[in-house]
Design goal:
The protein has about 100 residues and is of the alpha+beta class. Helix content is about 35%, strand content about 35%. The protein has three helices and four strands, in the order βαββααβ. Strands 2-3-1-4 form a four-stranded antiparallel beta sheet, covered by helices on one side. It is globular.
């Protein structure tokens, strides 16, 4: 089943996010290689296609996991969580309706 993961960045965590990003991306590459990643990306604070002075407010990941518990365990082990980039994380089941 698909799950949507929404991580909200801690205030002032942009430098930390940039330092931890390579480890986070390595985990994302595993999901991609397993054909379980539907989409993922950051949410810029500013209304622009690239992060501006406001930085990043968080990230969204939609991926396949065997269960809600597995999705929660997976994100709990992500460097954005373990290193404190995300101040909060929400994980919910997701049904793709379109396209």
């Amino acid at each position: 089943m698909l799950y949507v993961i929404v991580g909200r960045d801690a205030p002032g965590s942009l430098d930390l996010r940039q330092r931890v990003r390579p480890q986070h991306l390595e985990r994302m590459k595993v999901l991609m290689a397993e054909h379980r990643l539907t989409l993922a990306g950051p949410c810029p604070v500013d209304d622009a296609p690239t992060p501006g002075p406001g930085g990043i407010s968080g990230s969204v990941i939609i991926a396949e996991f065997p269960s809600l518990d597995e999705a929660r365990r997976w994100i709990a082990a992500d460097p954005y969580v373990t290193e404190g980039v995300f101040e909060s994380v929400e994980v919910r089941p997701f049904i793709k309706a379109l396209p």
